[in-house]
Amino acid sequence: MANLSTTRPIRVAIIGSGPAGVYAADILTKSQEVAGGDVQVSIDLFESQPAPYGLIRYGVAPDHPRIKGIMNALHKVLDRGDIRFFGNVMYGRDLTLTDLRAHYDAIIFATGATKDAVMDIPGIELDGSYGGADFVSWYDGHPDVSREWPLTAKEIAVIGNGNVALDVARVLSKHADDMLVTEIPDNVYAGLKTSPVTDVHIFGRRGPAQVKFTPLELRELSHSRDVDIVLYEEDFDFDEASDAAIKSNNQVKIMVNTLTNWLAEEHDETRVPASRRLHLHFLHTPVEITGTDGHVSGIKFERNELDGTGNVRGTGEFIDYPVQAVYRAVGYLGSELAEIDFDARRGVIPNDGGRVLSADGTHVPGIYATGWIKRGPVGLIGSTKGDALETIGCLLEDRLSLPAAQFPGEQDVSDLLESRGVEFTTWEGWNKLDAHEKHLGASYNAAHGVAVVRERIKVVDREQMVNISKK
User: Fold this and answer.
1) pLDDT at residue 1 above 70?
2) Could you tell me if residue 306 is inside a domain?
3) Can you give the residue ranges of the FAD/NAD(P)-binding domain (predicted)?
4) Which of 1, 153, 324, 417 has the most crowded Cβ, counting Cβ within 10 A?
């Protein structure tokens, strides 16, 4: 295949329409400024779901107020009209790498990380042991997961001390009626409404100064109505590294202050006890999930102590907690992609600054990665912008040596998808679905009065989403 040397726009396919993909597309559209005015681009954004936004729509708890702002920012980028959106198109099924190479000069993978990281302890396979990512997909109305979720446990353990663990625990402990102001689907509201939960326990391996969540996520725990936050004095241990982190890192200082203030408030005897409790435990390492008749009935932890460096060591003391469900939220992993080398241990595409590497460590011409599939599930959504800038910088450096597409016309890929019977959705179609979901919310409000205001109700079924988009 000849190298790209013509004056026509560079044709770029981006796989994934979450923040990583949209930020990469946005930066590419400004490439004339980045590369000195001699670059024009034509960008197609492909998404496996009928709707855009990836992680923002299907990976973050719906009661996060800041998410609306991020979604609005992504909407503005795609609504400009200089980036084409193809929804309901699955890479490796509807389009292969060979197809993409034939139609594009460069391909950027921005498929994220959606699987639960592995936790290998006895009992992990018991009924009632769940992946946090699977639960997130359920309450966010992902079209590829079951509409039902077994919410039968009164006492629940959530393993992990990151933002996802807090999301999972908050949704599990919150009263269903308080979630109606979000965009949760009707089946999720119905499931949460029947939950008999009284106690949700979050367990972290290290101490309060080493937690991985952010101050905003932590504070949101205290906003849940009729849910008490419960902490334990024996978990509040600080070593030299903890003290140094508190003094040098304002975020750590805020979180430790928040936690210690909550601990002090527990002794307020004038408080009316809530009907539900959310327990925060630190210095606990899970060693076994125990079961009865194949179902979770408890979980065993070893108590830890800080070792002076901020890390922990086991004390040899073990504690059993009676629970009927366990949710593991210890991280995400990316998924392997057809025809692309993959690092299964880290869950990423091997790359050098975004340039995808082959098995022998050389750059695969014209193939790039950005976001979590590039660097792993670390950093907040905002850090994805800098990550995309690095990847796009590499692509622009390589622009004169990109392998030229055989069929660079914009209509060609649409014709190919239609010839294969792929019912792809468009940006215009998303605007129709967006309006429909908002109409469902308005209809609910009209039927139930002003007690609850629902901005939208999310459509879950894939076929229904496609049909609404194509009306």
Assistant:
1) no
2) yes
3) 11-189
4) 153
